[in-house]
Amino acid sequence: MKLLILDAGHCLNLALARVAHRRSDTELVIEAGLEIDAERLRELAPDAVIIPPLSGPMDIEPAAVVAHGHGVDACLAACRETDTPLVWCVSDQLYQDGFDTPIDEHVIPAPRDESLRRLIAIGDRIRSGHPRHLIVRLGPLFALEGGHAWLSDVIDCLIAGDNVRAAQDVIFCPTSADAVAMALVGMLHQLACGSSAWGAYHLAGTEPVSAYTFTSLVRTQLATRLEGLGKPATLGEVKALKHHHDQPLRRVLNCRRVLEAFGVHQKPWRLEVGRMLDEWCQARRPPLAEGDARS
User: Fold this and answer.
1) Residue 183 and residue 68: Cα distance in Å, rounded?
2) Closest Cα to residue 79, out of 10, 5, 157, 132?
3) Which of 56, 71, 123, 250 has the fewest C-beta atoms lying within 10 Å of its C-beta?
4) Helix H or strand E segment including 64
5) CB contact set of 77 (below 8 Å; sequence gap of 6+)
6) SS3 of 21, please?
7) In sequence order, what are the residues at sequence separation of 6 or more whose Cβ sits closer than 8 angstroms to the Cβ of residue 144?
């Protein structure tokens, strides 16, 4: 199976490349930009096109959100003309006001922000005009490398001794980019083998948590690992932000449908964070001397 991945350098794309490297049945073609035309699709003949999520669309300039929407629209037009399956990953922030209960896949986001509403309109066009599609809504992605990786930014700030400010009253499910990449490849292989389970799905880590608690745990585990390496460091502090003074905003995705349709289980974010911090520390562990290696 050949997959065309747009927006090179995104943390999800790097995770997909790692998954494909471990498999003999998956080939990746990565394009630098977001827009693709029908001629290029005919030339590459991919089995699907994957668009990674725009991270934090509520926290960036509206112009960047609009530009992302233009790119998705252009990709949709090319996929429709060539009948190429389209996978569009989107941020949970499209559920701008959250819900008191876990959000099911059939619930279409209805944000108040005008630029976010443009993305919802694109989703409507995908659902109505391109049957072979996946709209995959994700919790906040974290990874060790690549664009929008979050975890790497937190580690860099803490190591530099800078304070990290994180919301205490927004509850969500942090999502490992590696876990999403494995799930997407598995889902697309099942679809290529005859499954007809196209549509919208939620993928997120287990255990809802605030950004403040997530970041605090990263700091604690990082400090513990550095001490174990004999490299204790004075890390920056985690400072709590409050945006919702009446009650926390909950943006928790219900991921039951992806389990029922594809057998995809959500990975606990705590385990994924621990694994990634182990990898981060291992990359910084000094190599053994030749005599030490023999002993």
Assistant:
1) 24
2) 132
3) 56
4) helix 62-82
5) 38
6) helix
7) 151, 152, 155, 276, 279, 280
**Both structure tokens of 60:** 């960036």
Helix, strand or coil for residue 193? coil
pTM of the shown model: 0.93
Question: Rounded to the nearest 10 degrees, what angle do helices 11-21 and 177-192 cross at?
Answer: 60
CB-count burial class (<10 Å; 0-12, 13-18, 19+) for 193? exposed
Rounded-to-integer distance, Cα 245 and Cα 62, Å: 25
**DSSP label at residue 18:** H
Q: What percent of the chain has pLDDT over 90?
A: 87
Beta bridge partners of 50: 5, 87
| Amino acid in the structure at residue 199 | G
Which one-letter amino acid corresponds to residue 150? Answer: W
Specify whether the CB–CB gap between 193 and 156 falls below 8 A: no
Q: Residues of the chain with pLDDT > 70: what percent? A: 96
| pLDDT at residue 294 greater than cutoff 80 | no
Return d(Cα 132, Cα 191) in angstroms, integer.
9
